[in-house]
Amino acid sequence: MTDAAIIDGKAFAAGLRDRVATAVAGLKRDHGLTPGLAVVLVGEDPASQVYVRNKGKQTLEAGMESYEFKLPDTTSQEDLLAKVHELNADPKVNGILVQLPLPKQIDEQAVLAAIDPNKDVDGFHVVNVGRLNTGSADALVPCTPLGCLLLLRDYFGGALSGKKAVVVGRSNIVGKPMFNLLLQESCTVTVAHSRTADLPAELGQADIVVAAVGRPEMVKGEWLKPGAVVIDVGINRIEKPEGGTRLVGDVDFAGASKVAAAITPVPGGVGPMTIACLLRNTVTAACRQNGIDEPSM
Ligand SMILES: Nc1nc2c(c(=O)[nH]1)N[C@@H](CN(C=O)c1ccc(C(=O)N[C@@H](CCC(=O)O)C(=O)O)cc1)CN2
């Protein structure tokens, strides 16, 4: 097998952001509606600061309104909930996102549960989890798994039905929604995790592998079915032998590239899709809140 094709998430995300910007221009022109996204950051985690800055910048570039709230690391749960309630009530705000992780004193589930489900552009509220699980068209879908799905649909030209997919990882943010999205595409889906008895045997059957375990280069090339399509959700910073650090995914990229038909790189694969899908979800939420047909994006 020759080296796998690279699924260029960075380029796909740029195209999606352009389509979102076109949709926003149409909403302004035809309905006088400018979607607004509020992002709340609690604390000073350096990676979260970068993600939040990029969210604000890309929101503005798409022609939407961006509202950014930076709260100190010592913020109480009560104060954060008050901010969420304020944003729920603000008609200018169509989408609300609280950046994760949150400081220890705050109950993440309580905060996510306080967000108006129709403004929950992260898709983490139990109402949206339930909507996705039951196949409701009203679901707001978590951004990272939605990004993975868009890349897969694009690669397969929409023909995902009947494919065998293995999702490695069972988190609420990626693994479980990914399972539901692939099932809705009529894939046969297995969710593997830390207690899976024989991961190589599971992966050896898979036409599609979505790796989201958070363990650097855990999935080995020799475990894959030749010709598999590999979506690597992991973003892990590791030490280089010569000093300094580099980013790697949850898949051993060099080994997997020799076996797979196509693979997403890290960086430049799934990561950029997360914010592009956040913008898409904000437009979707704004349209639904205003009874406007959702533009194709
Ligand atoms: N409320 C949320 N919190 C978090 C989410 C989320 O979807 N909602 N996801 C992650 C962080 N995240 C966005 O918030 C995010 C992660 C990675 C990227 C990205 O573009 N990664 C680049 C590499 C970046 C680097 O150099 O470090 C890539 O993979 O190419 C964007 C957004 C956790 N929190």
From TrEMBL:
Residues 142-289 form the Tetrahydrofolate dehydrogenase/cyclohydrolase NAD(P)-binding domain. Coiled coil: none annotated. Residues 7-122 form the Tetrahydrofolate dehydrogenase/cyclohydrolase catalytic domain. Pathway: One-carbon metabolism; tetrahydrofolate interconversion. One of its GO terms (molecular function) is methylenetetrahydrofolate dehydrogenase (NADP+) activity. It comes from the Bacteria. It catalyses: (6R)-5,10-methenyltetrahydrofolate + H2O = (6R)-10-formyltetrahydrofolate + H(+); (6R)-5,10-methylene-5,6,7,8-tetrahydrofolate + NADP(+) = (6R)-5,10-methenyltetrahydrofolate + NADPH. Keywords: Amino-acid biosynthesis, Histidine biosynthesis, Hydrolase, Methionine biosynthesis, Multifunctional enzyme, NADP, One-carbon metabolism, Oxidoreductase, Purine biosynthesis. One of its GO terms (cellular component) is cytosol. NADP(+) binds at residues 169-171, 235. One of its GO terms (biological process) is purine nucleotide biosynthetic process. It holds the Pfam family THF_DHG_CYH_C. Its EC number is 1.5.1.5, 3.5.4.9. Belongs to the tetrahydrofolate dehydrogenase/cyclohydrolase family. Catalyzes the oxidation of 5,10-methylenetetrahydrofolate to 5,10-methenyltetrahydrofolate and then the hydrolysis of 5,10-methenyltetrahydrofolate to 10-formyltetrahydrofolate. Homodimer. This is Bifunctional protein FolD. The gene is folD.
